[in-house]
Amino acid sequence: MSLIHATAVIHPSAELDSEVEIGPYSVIGAKVKIGRGTKIMSHAMIDGPTTIGQDNRIFPFASLGAEPQDKKYAGEATELIIGDRNVIRECCTFNRGTVQDKGKTVLGNDNWIMAYVHIAHDCMVGNNTIFANSATLAGHVTIHDYVILGGFTLVHQFCHIGEHAFTGMGSAISKDVAPYTMAYGSPAEPRSINTEGLKRRGFTPEAILRIKNAHRLIYRQQLTLNDALSQIETEMGQFPEIQLLLAFCRRSERGLIR
């Protein structure tokens, strides 16, 4: 039995693995590549150039790989790249990149993307993230591994959100969010560290305590950021989880939410 429904429209240049499933009325455009085991349900639209990996589940009315919503875009062959084992729910919109930046938009592996999420041009999303309903990324945003975005989170262009960070419902992010941080509000403010998430991901009690102490130095001791980072490096900079935090903070261009 064919895995491609008779009402689906597939462009002749699309490259589909023999085990890809395409549901009714979905449209697969030119220069689209889809890997083994990926299931695309009804009424999805996938334009190209777009590459989708293995074992993804794409729900109805998703629009993936459309032109970027950028007035500078002039038809260049930019791309969208999606990895493996992602769940992309109803009405999500992911746009291709622009030549003014990376030329591509990327979603990694094992991400859980809920309904109505928008990922704009030139965004880089890592692995094992969760985006709740209607989370929205402006262009050029970077989301690192294990980030959780609460429903209706809004992220300003060029912002970075670090590993294991968590945003509350309706948060408006206009600067970078450091790894491990729980943030919420409009504008978002750092509230604590993501203790429960770190426990679930196997961080030891000692590592969590170090992260908590580092967070306190950055946000609670009225230190300048440079002074806080220097003290953190002196006191605990030899630990990998702290090295990750220090590196993120030092390369931040927009500055941290404070």
Question: Can you characterise this structure?
Answer:
By secondary structure, this protein is an alpha/beta fold. Helices cover 17% and strands 27% of the residues. It contains 4 helices and 27 strands. The strands form 3 sheets. A 10-stranded mixed β-sheet has the order 3-6-9-12-15-18-21-24-26-27. The protein has a 9-stranded parallel β-sheet with strand order 1-4-7-10-13-16-19-22-25, with no helix packed on it. Strands 2-5-8-11-14-17-20-23 form an 8-stranded parallel β-sheet, with no helix packed on it. Helix 2 (205-219) runs antiparallel to helix 3 and helix 3 (225-236) runs antiparallel to helix 4 (240-251). It is elongated and about 65 Å long. The chain starts with 8 loop residues before the first strand and ends in a 7-residue tail after the last helix. The model has no long low-confidence stretch (mean pLDDT 97).
Ends: how far apart? 57 Å
Oligomer: single chain
What's the total helix number? 4
Secondary-structure content class: alpha/beta
Gyration radius (Cα, Å) is: 20 Å
Mean pLDDT: 97
* Proportion in helices: 10-25%
Low-confidence stretches: none
Overall 3D shape: elongated
Major β-sheet profile: 10 strands, mixed
Provide the spatial order of strands within the biggest beta sheet.
Answer: 3-6-9-12-15-18-21-24-26-27
Counting DSSP E segments of at least 2 residues, the number of strands comes to 27
What is the percentage of strand-forming residues? 25-35%
